[in-house]
Amino acid sequence: LQRCLTQDPSMHERFVELVRIAWLEEKSQEKQQILDEIAELKKTCTECEADLLTKKEQRDAISSEVSSLETAVTAKKEELNNLALDVLKLSRNTLLVNLRFLDMALSQFTYHEVEDNTLLTDGKYLLYDPKHILRCYKSAKEIPVRDYLHMVMHCVFRHMFMDPTLNRVYWDLACDIAVENMITELNLKSVTAVRERQQVPYI
Asked: Which of 64, 108, 130, 136 is the S-S candidate for 80 at Cβ 3.0 to 4.6 Å?
């Protein structure tokens, strides 16, 4: 082959041309392969963008639904709180009608909502769990009234102040017995609850 190319210049040129054509075809194939890969990547990117757009729409829909649920929950909690406040104020007013001499003691509190608790006070704030108040009222309308008076009488008798040498559990029990017995002796229909009958054998 080398001898032929050397002896015949035209053959040499033909050979070079064939080599160039082969090289161009190879590069053309490589180029086409690269173009095919680019097209596939573009297709994949388009699918990814569509998928991301779909997920963004789903996320926005979920976010909107969560926001709506939070708004509904907040509105429901506010409604429950307002109902519980109405029950507490009704209980206070019921006591004011029957025990007018306790008007200052009954009306001294600032109401403050708490969660996962019952009904308690520090002498200034009346802390209440709306769900507890409403459950009690649903059970018997006299229960919140008796609980309110029970709490007020602890304040009137200053039961929150105790000798630190005393047993706290026994002190609390003795104070509860004294207050419950006094409420029972008032003989008010508006504070007569089931627990009053249950206490009879012990008081």
From this structure: 130
The rounded distance, in Å, linking the Cα atoms of 176 and 154 is 8
Nearest to 182 by CA among 141, 152, 142: 152
Q: In this predicted model, what pLDDT tens digit does every residue of 9-51 receive, in sequence order?
A: 665 566 666 667 777 777 777 777 888 888 888 888 888 888 8
> Quick one: how far is CA 114 from the chain centroid?
14
CA distance 94 to 60: 50
- Alpha-carbon distance of 144 to 135, in angstroms, equals 10
**For residues 126-154, b (16+ Cβ closer than 10 Å) or e, as one string?**
bbbbbbbbbebbeeeebbbbbbbbbbbbb
Task: For residues 136 and 84, give the distance between their C-alpha atoms in angstroms, rounded to a whole number.
Answer: 10
Name the residue with tokens 């009608």: 97
